[in-house]
Amino acid sequence: MAVTMNDVARAAGVSLKTVSNVLNDYEFIRPATKQRVQDAIAELGYEANLTARSLRSGKTSMLGLVLSDLSAPYYAELASKLMKAAARRGYRVIVEQSDAGAAAELGALQGTFRQLTDGLLFTPLVADADAIAARAGRKPLVMLGEHVMDPRFDLVTMKNGEAAAALTRHLLAGGRRRIAVIGARPDESAGSAGLRLNGYRKALEDAGIAFDAGLVAPAAWRRDAGAAAVAGLLEAGVEFDAVFGLNDVLALGALHELLIRGVKVPGEVAVAGFDDIDEARFASPSLTTVSPGMEEIAERSVGLLLDRIGARETAAQGVHVAAGFELKIRESAP
Amino acid sequence: MAVTMNDVARAAGVSLKTVSNVLNDYEFIRPATKQRVQDAIAELGYEANLTARSLRSGKTSMLGLVLSDLSAPYYAELASKLMKAAARRGYRVIVEQSDAGAAAELGALQGTFRQLTDGLLFTPLVADADAIAARAGRKPLVMLGEHVMDPRFDLVTMKNGEAAAALTRHLLAGGRRRIAVIGARPDESAGSAGLRLNGYRKALEDAGIAFDAGLVAPAAWRRDAGAAAVAGLLEAGVEFDAVFGLNDVLALGALHELLIRGVKVPGEVAVAGFDDIDEARFASPSLTTVSPGMEEIAERSVGLLLDRIGARETAAQGVHVAAGFELKIRESAP
DNA sequence: TAGGAGTTCTATAACGTTGTAAAAAAGAAG
DNA sequence: CTTCTTTTTTACAACGTTATAGAACTCCTA
């Protein structure tokens, strides 16, 4: 039997509610009474029962995080940082893996998972804005990433286009002219893939270089797909002097494939990625990439979500935030 | 206002408890009644309130997972698999990061976090067995990893010693005679580091090769520490023809450092790791390592924990389980 | 057609908190 | 001292579920 508020009240010789008031920093309590209650709490080792508190107050002090796969390095790092940011503010984060399935993504908006949380950090990859809006409910929801950019939703993201353009300019400045892009998603223009590809095209255009669709290889955002995409280009006889992996694992997969085939990096082909996962620094050669300001993303998305949770009314309009980025020039594309 | 059981009861023309009985698969309910209740549930879109259920039943349907850092690839993969294993059984996992701090590890055993969960999957790195036992409480607790091997606790682990010995034998069979070990923890013999080092020594001994303490480099289990450890050995003029990183990120850091310095891998020095993280397959050269049966670890630790949660009494004796391993021979040490 | 053994259902009381409203105590003003 | 205001404390209900115990049905048997 755990110690309850009632036990504390009895020990301190006050009513149940007075104990509750002390715990909730109610204004009008005599210092002597407060002390007596606190002594009783310390002596009995009382700890508030969160379940009961949640039931009564309707708040759980938990945030939900929906992402496709926690074992992907980018998401693992993001989740870790989000948890720490939330912990600093007295919240806990629970994670739901969607495996990039639409049903799982939409399911996380409702039911058990939603019920357990006061607000959601949501990284949709396949569900569309209308389907999300229809199921969004009234609890706050902050989008992470680029799949859904809709004025109805709050959104914290990165400067995909600008960063991809900056990276492309860097490759061009290094004398590269035929930059292959791997990881494109031909079917979508709004997601991270589309935005980064746009940045790439913009930089080419600004430099007066024609865009060649033959240099763009679609691929799922996994290592093996990155390797396969590069293998495909090589076997098709496509010539290129640089590879831009739309994220780091794609670039690392490509790097691996190039090295296996005896292609010199960066001598013959430069390689660059996007995300600056920990591994990028320690690849051989180390990977040039974009650091998308993950710390800032974590901090601001949790901050925004908690603002919404604390607000009286639901916001009429979504806020869009884009964290700053930084180019990380390393050996693979100096 | 969410739909409650009371609304369902009214709509179906039965009592509150009958609805509860339907939801909990109580045996004695007339099929017609059951149907009526289920229709009402479907029509009203009722969903059980987990908080209220928890308060009344004392069960949360959540498991706790305590680990040092979710952004470390090994832990990220483990967490992902544990969540899936738990989900298959109707449980959710919430993660607490200890940052390898004793206070945080012990803190996770008590207070809020413990309260929210029906049982704990615990990966201690610094806390000692007695301190854990003193705070273990009465809710089930399953240890993961090797830091605490104590008959009082249930434990799911891997075959560290055997696997390290097998890997060492493989290096020896490839003609390597001076195998450097990086990532040792001189202060502890019981943890993963100690067990793997023992396996290494055992294999050397069996092969009649003298152990040379000069080949053993202490290092924190991070990439940069692995790189630094190898750099240290090289700069100290220590000769070696193989590096055994006590985990994969150490080995990958070492691999990186060797390549930067122009040391041929595996030509001059073979490199091997431990864990078989996703990245190991895609390193250049790909990394020879040990796959420690993580799937099996996830499955069995969740299974064991749920057995304990479901059991009438607390077990008198801890059960120790060691998952099988598999050698992954790749390019870095063929 | 009563008696008994099942089966099916229900009223009521918890679980441990917080919110409401009002009572009690203390202080100020006349 | 009263009366009024402000501060402090309290009794009681409520959050939505499950547990207990017993009532009300059904069906069988004698």
Automatic annotation (TrEMBL), chains A, B:
InterPro entries: HTH_LacI (IPR000843), LacI/GalR-like_sensor (IPR046335), Lambda_DNA-bd_dom_sf (IPR010982), Peripla_BP_I (IPR028082). Keywords: DNA-binding, Transcription, Transcription regulation. Residues 3-57 form the HTH lacI-type domain. One of its GO terms (molecular function) is DNA binding. Signal peptide: none annotated. This is DNA-binding LacI/PurR family transcriptional regulator. The lineage of its organism: Bacteria, Bacillati, Actinomycetota, Actinomycetes, Micrococcales.
